[in-house]
Amino acid sequence: xxxxxxxxxxxxxxxxxxxxxxxxxxxxxxxxxxxxxxxxxxxxxxxxxxxxxxxxxxxxxxxxxxxxxxxxxxxxxxxxxxxxxxxxxxxxxxxxxxxxxxxxxxxxxxxxxxxxxxxxxxxxxxxxxxxxxxxxxxxxxxxxxxxxxxxxxxxxxxxx
Amino acid sequence: xxxxxxxxxxxxxxxxxxxxxxxxxxxxxxxxxxxxxxxxxxxxxxxxxxxxxxxxxxxxxxxxxxxxxxxxxxxxxxxxxxxxxxxxxxxxxxxxxxxxxxxxxxxxxxxxxxxxxx
Lengths: 160, 118
Hints:
The complex is a heterodimer.
Chain A lengths: L2 E11 L2 H9 L11 E7 L2 E7 L5 H10 L2 E8 L16 E5 L2 E7 L19 E2 L5 H11 L3 H13 L1
Antiparallel strand pairs in A: 1-4, 2-3, 2-4, 5-6, 5-7
Helix pairs in contact in A: 1-2
Chain B lengths: L5 E4 L3 E6 L4 E6 L4 E3 L6 E3 L9 E6 L10 E2 L4 E6 L2 E7 L8 H19 L1
Antiparallel strand pairs in B: 1-2, 2-8, 3-6, 3-7, 4-5, 8-9
């Protein structure tokens, strides 16, 4: 099961220090050596970098050092049961919904989830990468219950 | 049934759902020295921050060994904004703690289902 790392701050900050320890778990102090991904967002833009090679984690560290971001997220993957693509099921992926780019990463397993979720409840949801869309939609559905997000969605609809 | 820890962000807020294991720390003034758990590296945040800075770090397991990380309760959804935990809601915790335990449980259920059909 992969590990997750996220950052949220009130001023643009790099995640280099935390990622230095985090990347050690990609094969040195832990077993998560099957891939890496790191999206980063600033203002309303989003960028994502990923690799399947543990040796490339240093490149991702450089990427994290270069980008001073307000929000950042990373995950590394340990594929146990089958081949796991970095841009596949667990890694952070961007999707566009309610006028914003969303990045999402999970380390779970939800077999036979019912009901099947396809994102249709978000009228403008557009996945921008291959991902476990059911999990992403489930995440969006659960956070949409928060009053702050409801206000934000209203604001997004008003400004777009 | 299953495990579903996730991070979700729209560039403004960051949502973190703890199904089995997630932890967070809020770094704010007065800043201190932080030391990594996985490598012998330390940073004195007083030298690289301003008094108004505030940062929330969320990770599956704590990354430093000398800071007061908060372990999120399994079955909670947290919203982080401007470097602080603004609110959290109760959800459902995973009935299993790991994928290994999950696979054992799934195997047991499959055997139980098959024996019921016989």
